[in-house]
TrEMBL record:
Name listed for the protein in its UniProt record: Vesicle transport protein USE1
Domain of life: Eukaryota
Protein's GO biological process: protein transport; retrograde vesicle-mediated transport, Golgi to endoplasmic reticulum
Renumbered residue ranges of the record's region Disordered: 87-110
């Protein structure tokens, strides 16, 4: 059975969002937030589509979108300790988004943000 066009679009945007999240973002970066909201809409459309993918695949897409959404919400918190705590509760995706990935990009992003927030907490505590 061929992959629906809506799923292809979702996977492309999802991998782009994962790449944007992996790069260190500045405070004036707005694209990721817009892309994630578009991902949510595309996911809802895909769930209503007549030739939707298997439920396991849809759950994985939902998990990755929720992870990116939680990452954006954690980034908006004021203190680095709150950010680190919120980051601990985020669940990255279990499977790679594209066939080129060896490990899931969301897992890599999760580890990068964890290290960044830990570094921020260290700097706050030590006053450097």
């Amino acid at each position: 059975m061929p992959v629906p066009r809506a799923e292809l679009k979702l996977v492309r945007l999802l991998s782009r969002c994962e790449a944007l999240a992996a790069d260190r973002r500045g405070p004036d970066e707005w694209r990721l937030e817009k892309y994630v909201s578009a991902l949510e809409e595309m996911l809802l459309d895909l769930k209503k589509h007549s030739s939707k993918p298997a439920p396991e695949v849809l759950n994985e897409y939902s998990r990755k979108v929720d992870f990116l959404k939680g990452l954006l919400e954690a980034d908006k918190l004021s203190s680095s300790s709150e950010k680190a705590l919120a980051n601990q509760f985020l669940a990255p995706g279990r499977t790679p988004t594209t066939t080129k990935e060896r490990t899931p990009a969301t897992k890599t992003v999760h580890l990068q943000t964890k290290a960044r927030y830990t570094g921020e907490m260290r700097n706050e505590l030590l006053g450097t």
